[in-house]
Design a protein that fits this description.
This protein is an all-alpha fold. It folds into three domains: 83 residues, no CATH class; 110 residues, no CATH class; 124 residues, no CATH class. It contains 14 helices and two strands. The radius of gyration is 30 Å and the shape is extended. The two termini are 44 Å apart.
């Protein structure tokens, strides 16, 4: 069976058009002729691929550029960067209308005006790379708060009293100060001391953190594996429903967990131990690894929501809705990236408000421009999309958490 996949052809055609535009821009610049052992099989002025006589930098028969690329690698890289980021590059003709004229480049692209803009998929990749680079490589977004945390002196006194009692119990057990110092030294690496009162000695904060982690791990195991804790579950409160407190504000609801096979629950308990021992670092690393994949999977789902919302309108295809989804998500990545940087100089709540107003105004104008809806109809679709996407994003984040835990 012969033929081609229309969707694959469309994607390839879009990518090829982008590469072709960059090649044309590069070919217009005068190149220094350099000798190469790899000579074209056709005479000068003819396409080296199909032998058609050339009338420009691109063969009108097969589409191959006339450039041989026999130049230093840094010269080729300069052409690529100049074609993308140069003043005449398509990125600078794409970003302003993308951010400030919602729906314009989407409507132009779907109408056939494409060469002047960055292709939708390349635009999405550029925006997502910048966003995740900012979030993951530079430890999140926002300006942060350098103000020292205020701790209630009564809480500090209570912690110190508890630690004094603990020291007394250790002394009664015959543990010498040298042995205590050795325990502190062995458990010092990787301990989270952020929640410890600043007035406590480092070794006390280290021991307190280890004790807290051990208690949380034990509570998780008791919730997941009641078979391993017969003494605790045999009391008069055995079988009582409700969540189990495993830390400050952290609870695990054991209801339904007993229906899972025992090997699965043991595996979950082991994964929880690793996450707690690392202070959550392993879970955060897995979430960072899977987050771009999650966002990429949301693209066609958002396009499906747009398609379902416009099922009654003729002349719209899934490809059209997918381009709308690509442009909208690229806009959101650029917007959040810019506001995250601005949050270092403006209050965070102002950045959040700007993001909410700007993104909703963008969706409203997108419906008005691309789908030609009226004002009231666009507002209704905006509210419906916000609600549906919020539900979809909630399930996506839950799936991201589950996948991250299972791959930890």
């Amino acid at each position: 069976m012969t033929g081609s996949d229309p969707i694959s052809d469309a994607v390839v055609a879009g990518s090829a058009a982008g590469e072709l535009g960059d090649a044309i821009q590069a070919s217009r610049r005068k190149k220094r002729e350099r000798y190469s052992v790899f000579q074209a099989p056709t005479p000068a002025g003819a396409c080296s691929n199909c032998s058609t006589q050339l009338s420009g930098p691109v063969c009108h028969s097969c589409g191959q550029t006339a450039d041989t690329y026999h130049r230093p690698i840094w010269d080729l890289l300069t052409d690529i960067l100049d074609g993308l980021f140069g003043l005449e590059g398509r990125l600078w003709r794409t970003l302003p209308p993308l951010m400030f004229k919602p729906g314009k480049i989407t409507q132009n692209y779907l109408s056939g005006v494409r060469a002047r803009y960055v292709m939708p998929f390349r635009l999405y990749l550029t925006a997502s790379v910048l966003f995740f680079l900012l979030v993951f490589a530079f430890d999140g977004i926002g300006g942060g708060d350098d103000t020292p945390a205020t701790i209630d002196p009564e809480d500090v006194a209570s912690v110190e009293a508890n630690l004094t009692n603990l020291d007394a119990q250790l002394a009664e057990a015959g543990i010498s100060p040298e042995q205590r110092a050795e325990i502190v030294r062995m458990t010092e690496a990787g301990i989270d001391q952020a929640q410890s009162p600043p007035d406590l000695p480092p070794e006390v904060r280290t021991m307190q953190g280890q004790v807290n982690r051990d208690e949380i791990k034990r509570s998780f195991r008791q919730a997941l594996l009641p078979e391993d804790f017969p003494a605790e579950t045999a009391g008069e409160d055995a079988g009582e429903d409700g969540p189990v407190v495993v830390g400050d504000g952290v609870m695990v609801d054991p209801n339904g967990l007993d229906e899972l096979p025992l090997p699965v629950r043991r595996d979950l308990a082991d994964r929880a131990d690793r996450i707690i021992d690392s202070g959550g670092a392993t879970l955060a690393a897995e979430m960072q690894r899977w987050a771009p994949t999650m966002m990429f999977c949301l693209l066609p789902l958002y396009a499906l929501m747009l398609a379902a919302m416009h099922f009654y309108k003729k002349g719209y295809f899934f490809y059209d809705h997918l381009v709308v989804s690509l442009h909208f998500h690229a806009f959101m990545f650029f917007l959040i990236t810019g506001l995250s940087l601005a949050a270092h100089v403006i209050p965070g709540w102002i950045a959040v408000m700007i993001g909410l107003v700007w993104s909703n105004w963008y969706l409203y104008r997108l419906h008005r421009t691309v789908y030609s809806h009226g004002r009231f109809s666009s507002i209704l679709r905006l509210v419906a999309l916000d609600f549906a996407y919020l539900i979809l994003l909630s399930f996506a984040l839950l799936g991201l958490l589950i996948v991250s835990v299972m791959t930890t």
